[in-house]
Amino acid sequence: MRDGFPSRTLPRLGASAPPQDSRRGRGATANPTSRYEPAQREAFHDETWMADAPAPLRTQVTPERSARIIARNSSPDIPFDRSINPYRGCEHGCIYCYARPTHAWLGLSPGLDFESRIFTKPDAARLLAREIAAPGYRPETIALGTATDPYQPAEREHRLTRAVLEVLREARHPVSITTKSDLVLRDLDILSEMAAENLVLAAVSLPTLDPDLARRLDPRAPRPDKRLAAMRALNAAGVPVMVNVSPIIPGLTDHEIESILGRARENGASRIGHALLRLPGEVADLMADWFAEHYPERRTRTFALLREARGGRENDPRFGHRFRGEGAYAAMIGQRVRLAGTRLGFAFGRIALNCDAFRKPGTQLALF
Q1: Gap between the Cα atoms of 247 and 62, Å rounded
Q2: Does residue 8 register a pLDDT over 80?
Q3: 161 near 144, Cβ under 8 Å?
Q4: How far is C-alpha 12 from the geometric centre of its chain's CA atoms?
Q5: Mean pLDDT of 30-50
Q6: Is 145 left (phi over 0), alpha (psi -120 to 50) or beta?
Q7: With b meaning 16 or more CB within 10 Å and e meaning fewer, what string describes 90-116?
Q8: Backbone CA torsion sign across 181, 182, 186, 192
């Protein structure tokens, strides 16, 4: 440890950081080698190379084939047992994203690769229809967008999320959606129809109302005002809306809890979700490096409060602790959310969606 941070944090990430101009509009400040790779790489800059302005980092989108599309989990911390992510990686570039370490499984970096090397699942809708039509399938709410945003920029062209929703609408299958994007309003025709049968919940993540901070935290996600407008439009169309105050970042966004909830309630949100910042795997190093570049004066306090809530560590993966934390600081955050939520008339957690209307894809309705 050095100054309370992992000793490898700044040397490793700083050495692999591309020039700032080339990563404008990106969240991560570096592109550290995957932990599964046998050799570490470092960026090398000489004066000749630096004489010309570096080319901006381009997003690459690659299709991949999957055998299945519904992922299962048995975590007691999560209010669903199945989920769908039509994309791997996320161009929104949220520096705090807990899914970043999954790119290491592909031999890629959880840093800039995660937000610039995107993989699509073009067979998502076909696989979904096959899986929910299987004998013995029993419907429960499918969570859409649990690791990466289903309405990230690639969705405008590839429309995989819409295709998945079309299958779910036909099957009258319940779904919850988590997103930061107002692109969700493109599918309002489907969502309003499903909402009429209590088949959908839309959760909009809003960790800050500050547009300058949001531009650094999740640089390619829509601005906070657009997310609030999306809540308003969803609510007007009859779609129940949850505001996800997530992640709550100690010493950086925690002072905004009450104002976020107030603005969300004004714009139609009726339910609350919240989670304390998580730093699994490489995210701890990436987050520390991000603070060093953007908010160096706050880094020490943020990590100290986080360790206080994580049993002396930067991450506590234990069930029952990883989303909420423990100790005085975590208890105070939970109390503030409960008090503000109750005062504003919010309900807490997800709603029970309708599983009784389910019909397998391709099933014809009875005449009588």
Answers
A1: 29
A2: no
A3: yes
A4: 26
A5: 62
A6: left
A7: bbbbbbbbbbbbbbbebebbbbbbbbb
A8: positive
> What average pLDDT does this structure show over 287-292?
96
Nearest Cα residue to 203 out of 230, 236, 173: 230
Q: Which structure tokens are listed for 243?
A: 């505001």
* DSSP symbols for 287-314: HHHHHHHH-HHHHHHHHHHHHHHTTTSS
CA distance 160 to 218: 22
Better pLDDT: 38 or 262: 262
Please, which pLDDT band fits residue 18 given cuts at 50, 70 and 90? low
Position 136, amino acid: G
In tens, the pLDDT along 79-91 reads 778 999 999 999 9
Cα–Cα distance, 324 to 334 (Å, whole number): 8
**320-356 burial: b if 16+ Cβ within 10 Å, else e:** ebbbbbbeebbeebeebbeebbeebebeeebbebbee
Q: Which two tokens stand for residue 105?
A: 């499984």
CA–CA separation, 204 vs 217, rounded Å? 16
Q: How far is Cα 63 from Cα 121, in angstroms, rounded to an integer?
A: 6
Q: Which CATH class is domain 9-32+52-347?
A: alpha beta
Residue pLDDT, tens place only, 84-139: 999 999 999 999 999 999 999 899 999 999 999 999 999 999 999 999 999 999 99
| pTM beyond cutoff 0.85 | yes
Tokens 């290491």: give the residue. Answer: 104
Q: What is the C-alpha separation between 173 and 168, in angstroms, rounded?
A: 5
